[in-house]
Each structure stands twice: as structure tokens, then as C-alpha cells.
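Minutes, structural biology subgroup

Action item carried over from last meeting: produce the C-alpha cell record for Ig-like domain-containing protein (Wuchereria bancrofti). EB confirmed the sequence was re-checked against the source entry. Recorded below for completeness.
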Amino acid sequence: PPYFKVRDEDADTSVITPSGRTIKLQCKAGGQPEPQVIWFNNNKKVITTEVRRPVGTEFRLRKNTLEIEDVAESDSGDYTCEAFNSAGSVTRTFKLRVVDRMRSKPIIVPNILVNQTVDANSTVNFTCKVISDLTPHIVWMRIEMTNDSIYYWNETDRKYIFRYTDMQSVENAIVTKTSQDSSTLTIVNVTVADQGMYACVSGNHLGHAIANATLTVNEFHAMTLATGNPDTKWSRSSVVAVVFLFILFIFTLSTTLFYIFCIRNVLKRK
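Output recorded by EB:
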């Protein structure tokens, strides 16, 4: 039966975007025979002559991708792709939410930046996605604890603030701008020292937004198995005993063979 080829960065089916942008919903499918893909908008088949948008241009179908230009709030809804062939069919639904443009501080899309637990020496990725009419500035930081709290009283500013480390300055951290409104923090060869709270901070001249997630690292503990200490040195008496037993074995074997040989000769003469 058909199946969808979904990359990690395309796994999220919840799409939130400001109005006026171009949205591309990808639905790559595989299978034998090669499946066909059709799209539905709120359970109506997307055909340029059948389903028209209230505003803007018509829907565009480019192979397995549905393209919507200049999205408006009226484009919000469910978009379902169905891949089918003679062996069966599968569906995948995207939930599109278009937010009217308004000049405001950035909005961080929820459920993208989440807590993670990984093993030591592995690699971890945190992703942060932002909604903003104005070009947002995204910074990754690690929140440092002070007396079991993320906040401390700053006498100079006379207010509570938090201490942090800019992840751009951390040797085993890589910050990647994956798109105009999203960024990924990658930490390689993680250790227990990397455990803690990581924050995505996005801002423009109207304000800022912050979201955080916690990293937990499972440390490997070496297991020691109790073993005996073998005596690698043989005593002189042990060597003598082994040699004596070997000589005795050879003598006994020789005597036995000689006896058997003599018995056979006697029987032949008779």
C-alpha cells in the first residue's frame, strides 16, 4: 500500500502563518505501483475549476504539493491529501490557521520546542518557530540556575532577572536559521554537564517572546564484573607432577599396545 515520505522537519501538520504569505503543503508519497495524490479542502476535492478561494489566486497543484499564494484568514481550515493506488490508500491532514496581520511582538508556535531526554555522547536538536509580521530576531540561550531558581535579584536594575549563556558561544552547540521564522539549536556529544533549561527568545521592536525546554541526559555507568585472579605462575612441584603423569600415561599406553600385539601373534600361530 502507499506510504508518506515525511522528513523530520515536515512532521508537524499544524501550520500557523500570518496572512499574505505563500504556503506550500507537501505530501510526498511512495509505493508500488506509484501512487496518485489528490487534495481536499474541508472535505471538498481541490480542483481549480471546482474549489475556488474566496480571495486571491486559485489553488496550485505542483506534483505532490498544494500551493496557496497570498493566504488570508478565510483559507484557514483542514487540507487533506490522499495517496492511492491499486493496493490501497492513505491520508494526511494539515490544519492551517491564518492569522490576520497585526503589528505586535513575535508569537512562538507552541508544541514545537519540547523537553527531550537523550543518552550521553548523542546529538540533540531543539527547534523554535515564530510568527511575526516584522522580521524576528531569534536567540538561543541556556538558563543558569541561581540558588535553585532561574531568577535572581539584580541590585543595579532593582528587579529580578535571569542569568544565561548565549549558545552561539558554546563550543559543542550549533545554531541554524532553518527559515525566515524558525531556528534550530543542535548540541553534539552531549554530556551530563549539558543538562538544563534551554530557551528560545524572539524579539522585534514591539517586544519579545520566550519559550523553554529541558534537556535530560542519561549517563552511561561502567559495570564492573567480579572475576577471580587466576594464578598464572606454576609451582615447580606442579610441573613435576604433570610431567610424571604424562610419562606414566605414555608408559601405560605402550605396555597395553605391546600386550595386545603379543596376544594377536600367539593366536595366529595356533
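Discussion: The chain has a mean pLDDT of 83.
Next step: EB to file the record with the rest of the batch.
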